[in-house]
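Run PilZ domain-containing protein through structure prediction, thanks.
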Amino acid sequence: MTRMQKERRRNRRSGIRIPVNLSYADATIETSTLNMSACGLRLKRPGRLYIPPGETIDVSFKGTDQPPLAAQITHLGKSHIGLQFDGKRFSGDELRALYDLAPAWQRFMVGSKRRLWRDSRRFAVLAANTLLRSLILKLVNPDFVFAVYGNRRDTDTYWSPKMAKHMPANLILGFIRNQNARGLLVASQTPEQELQANSDKVRTYISQLQLDFPQAKRFALVGRLPTFAKKAGIEIADPLVEGSLGTRYMIRDIAQQMKARAEYSEESSIVVLGGAGRIGNAVCEDLTGLYETVVAFDPRYEKDEEVRTEQGAVLRTSNVARLHDRKLYIGLMSQGDLVLDLFQHMPAGAMIADDTHPCISLHAREKLLEKGITVEKVVLSHSDFVMFPRMPSWNRRDIPGCLVEALVLLRRPDLEGGEFLSFCSQAKEMGFAGRLIKPLAE
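Sure, done. The structure for PilZ domain-containing protein is below.
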């Protein structure tokens, strides 16, 4: 399966098959679903039916009061048709109502497959961190470790409380390769909320990481983990990597791409949500070379203050009125869903480039979309990068900015603590490029 095919599958699918009618060119065609998601359908292709990709048809669900939905043909295979709804997205309740139209045996089979997939993933995590852990460490011999954490929902995806008792505190969850460098994705069993509240648990996590993986030359700390570490009195120095240079490189690249889009080419300002944070201040200054005004929005600012830089101006503020006429946003908040406190003050047509962890959730994105605000996820990519299995809400070839810094420093240790533009030059030379992608629906 090609990468493009993988990236089309951004929405969680039901696997339910129910009858539908298609209306096209004054004809009504009966068929059935092969799969459904919030944004589209995969249908059984009737006989020799041919509808060119790009054409719009109407879809009706039998046995419902749902009015016909306009949908665009996105793919035409030998036995199936791919559709994407035109301006429509099913809510969770609407999907459940359609799901209930299927026979009980079919719902049972779909539920069984999902449970089997969940249990298989959990078993793989258990095996990798008990019976196979020593073998994995010997075979991979990691050059670097990507240290992550999750919320309760993330952790429940990979292990149960009963399993946790039989596994080490720091769990191997994935393999990472970039060119000749090999590494491991490692997660703490301690969820984000506890790491934030308890510095002792942070110190235990970081120290145990280095004991568990003594051969690793770099430890990339995800998201807010560097902030938690500093709060716990841990110095972020070799071999620990806080990731700010990689994140700044990524956001600078993305901010250029946002301005290059036709609908935003006239925008002279950009808002950094979370602009007073550890990375936010540096990002704001970086972006003054691209925009006349950078608005550093953060509730920690008690009054408006304009700071002049060599290239432009940064407006530090917590005043939501400053958002009313701004259409471009970089999300750097401590949690993506904090945007729900602000989106009513943003104009329709606004766009948020999301670099939060945890990222803006599907529920929040649906709320934003109702107001005409789109969200795209910020990632870095490299043609030779692979993460398997992927992190939740990420494609396996997309790289968090904090990890890129570790990969660059593996190649060029002399750049640690050096000039930002020198780091950017090396990252670009190594082939890392920023991308805006549609978030996965999970």
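The radius of gyration is 24 Å.
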